[in-house]
Amino acid sequence: MAISIRQVGPGFAGEVEKIDIREPLGKADAAAIHAGMDEYGVLAFREQPMTADQQLAFTRALGTLEHSIGTSLRKPDEYRLPTTFADVSNLDIDDKPLARDDRRRLFAIGNRLWHSDSSFKPVPAKYSLLHAIAITSTGGNTEFAHMGAAYDALDAATKARCEGLVCEHSQMYSRQQIGFLDLSEEEKLRFAPVCQPLVRVHPVTGRKSLFLASHAGGIVGWPVPEARIFLRDLAEHATQRKFVHAHRWRKGDLVMWDNRQTMHRARPFPVDEVRDMRRTTLAGDAARQAA
Ligand SMILES: [Fe+2]
Fold first, then answer.
1. Quick check: 74 and 229 in contact, CB under 8 A?
2. How many CA atoms lie within 13 A of 125 on its CB side?
């Protein structure tokens, strides 16, 4: 039976019905999911229990996997999951919640700032697929904002001002915003900034969007404070509540979003409860600057 999608968010975000992710994904359903992603930007698949291998198979049926290496403060021998996954849990290698003052946790809570996954890599992410293995008793929503809608809602003068600008993205810049400054020299090198266009064009729909993220800490050729205020104003505009969709997790949910046209953030949850989330990521293409 063909999948169906119903809209759940403000002008974007859908829920996919009539699908069992554990089954091999047929060509027609894969095409329908890609079309749904282009249209909605975010798709939720409710209560889909699956193994790690099933999540990998589903992800690979949709594109090329991005590996997660060196993007957190976990050391190579502290990885709980293979590099085919990004570990979005709050757990250490023994599946225990990280202590409140653990620097790996403090770095990771930078995910509560609005961002687009891997915007700090030369080739940023296409889709992220986040699966909830264990959720907390309260909190922990993931919120989404549509950057195509945000771009459309800018006035003409601001659109003109944004055109052609290039931003510098680094995880150092997002962590500076929350006062996380104690990075080693090795980490600073690893998190060296990369350049991304501020206005990007979706490769399938041709729609323009703001390529924003809290990782953006500078605009090439601009004084830093002026750049950061400008980017902050754009992010405030783009994340007004009327534009935001909140996903309230149920155990087993898989949520997939297109990082090329949305931003997202995690919301707070109790520090001592287990939150086990597993993300697979599809590699994108280099962001295309608006002509
Ligand atoms: Fe993220």
1. no
2. 26
Distance of CA 136 to the CA centre of its chain: 20
Segment 196-211, tens digit of pLDDT: 999 999 999 999 999 9
Q: Output the six-digit token pair for 236.
A: 């405030």
What is the reported pTM? 0.96
Cα separation, 123 vs 65, in Å, equals 12
| Cβ–Cβ < 8 Å for 110, 204 | no
d(CA 45, CA 6) in angstroms, rounded, equals: 11
Distance from the first to the final alpha carbon of the chain: 41
Q: How confident is the model at residue 288 (pLDDT cuts 50, 70, 90)?
A: confident
Q: How far is the CA of 269 from the centre of ligand 1 (A)?
A: 16
Q: Among the residues of the chain, which ranges form H helices?
A: 27-40, 52-60, 103-108, 147-152, 156-162, 171-177, 185-190, 224-238
Give the mean model confidence (pLDDT) for residues 122-139.
97
**CA 152 to centroid of ligand 1, rounded, Å:** 23
Distance from the alpha carbon of residue 113 to the mean position of ligand 1, in angstroms: 9
Q: 157 CA to middle of ligand 1, Å?
A: 31
How far apart are alpha carbons 70 and 28 in whole angstroms?
A: 36
